TrEMBL record:
Classification via PANTHER family: BLR5498 PROTEIN, LUCIFERASE-LIKE MONOOXYGENASE
Transmembrane segments annotated in the record for this chain: none
Residue ranges constituting the Luciferase-like domain according to the UniProt record: 4-312
Entry-linked SUPFAM superfamilies: Bacterial luciferase-like
Name this polypeptide is given: LLM class flavin-dependent oxidoreductase
Keyword annotations: Monooxygenase, Oxidoreductase
Pfam families xref list: Bac_luciferase
Gene3D superfamilies recorded: Luciferase-like domain
Organism: Streptomyces cylindrosporus
Length: 352
């Protein structure tokens, strides 16, 4: 598969823009991305804070499905413990049909403790619940019947879906952030920041081994996408691009910090103390120095991605744009410049 490009979004609330205008501007933005040849749209799932104005990803993606024709719709990730297994199966199967088979599935447990508490279960159970629901979902997609047999957490009468999803055995699977899980599952993979040589080698090693095991996942995906996600800002000058990034990144970091821990934002009186020292260290790093963001003129951004493509570690470049309190105008300018100048240069460089 040739190098592909995608969009990752939380759909943050910011400024005075109402949620109706936010939805409309995002759908218009994603239609621009589709017209420019972007492969997929990744939508995060969060609940109860300004980081996400789209807590029901399936609803937003269903609306987007009716406004687009080629863009892959990729919830990244469906936070499985926050959904009843029957409901997530029904919702995703409907979305597969409504999109004419453009659904791809990012599956995971979710990282926000208070969200699990809001849904009435112990965050410490999240990994086990996610494994159970994932197995139920994939079996149900193949058989049309979802069952709680042998489950430690769920007890329901088996349910048969009264229609056929489009894709078989199931939509392509994605893992975000964890190369070990992605490689062992043979999943498409996306991470924050550049894909390193060591990361790609580990993924390839694990995937090759998993393909020899009975019951390996994603058997229908022959050329997995290995993606790096970065906030991108393109402006007429490097100084202007960095100024926009500094402002938008500060807003984003406060949003994502308030989304961590066990206390929901509307009950917080100050920024919570991060309970994950690795995540804390990441958030405290400079986004440009760490590779979590790329900002500059179109020529600078073009040269950066050409170099990344020639390294060959990633074959999928995902823009987290707009982010924070970036305006629609700032996001559109970056998207249009990226589509017109960066994408052709990257593909030409790889074809040389």
């Amino acid at each position: 598969m040739p190098i592909q490009f995608g969009i990752f979004d939380h759909i943050e609330m910011s400024g005075d823009q109402g949620v109706e205008a936010l939805y409309e501007s995002r759908i218009a933005y994603l239609k621009r991305a589709e017209a420019a040849g972007f492969y997929g749209f990744h939508l995060a799932e969060h609940h109860g804070h300004r980081l996400s104005a789209s807590p029901s990803a399936s609803v937003f993606l269903a609306a987007l499905a009716r406004e687009t024709t080629t863009l892959k719709l990729i919830p990244t990730v469906v936070c499985l413990p926050l959904h009843h297994p029957v409901r997530v199966f029904e919702d995703m199967a409907m979305l597969d049909v409504l999109s004419h088979g453009r659904l791809e599935l990012g599956l995971g447990k979710g990282i926000t403790k208070f969200e699990h508490l809001q849904f009435g279960h112990d965050p410490e159970e999240a990994s086990a619940r996610a494994r159970e629901i994932s197995a139920m979902l994939l079996e149900a997609w193949e058989t049309g019947i979802i069952s709680s047999a042998d489950s430690d957490f769920y007890d329901f009468m088996e349910m048969k879906l009264p229609f056929e999803p489009v894709q078989h055995p199931y939509p392509p699977l994605w893992t975000a952030g964890n190369v070990e899980v992605a490689g062992r599952g043979g999943h498409n993979f996306v991470t924050t920041g550049p894909v390193t040589a060591a990361m790609r080698a580990r993924y390839d090693e694990l995937r090759a081994a998993s393909r020899e095991e009975p019951g390996h996942q994603n058997p229908h995906v022959k050329d997995p996408l290995i993606g790096q996600t970065q906030t991108v800002v393109i402006a007429p000058t490097e100084a202007e691009a960095k100024k926009i990034l500094d402002r938008a990144w500060s807003y984003y970091i406060e949003s994502i910090t308030r989304a961590r821990g066990t206390v929901p934002p509307h009950l917080q009186t100050e920024l919570p103390v991060m309970d994950n020292p690795v995540a804390q260290a990441v958030l405290e790093r400079d986004p440009l120095e760490s590779g979590m963001a790329v900002a500059g003129t179109v020529e600078q951004v073009r040269d950066y991605y050409v170099e990344q493509a020639r390294l060959g570690h990633a074959n999928y470049f995902v823009l987290m744009t707009p982010v924070g309190d970036m305006t629609p105008e700032e996001g559109n300018r970056t998207l249009d410049a990226f589509a017109e100048h960066v994408i052709p240069a990257v593909r030409e460089a790889v074809d040389e």
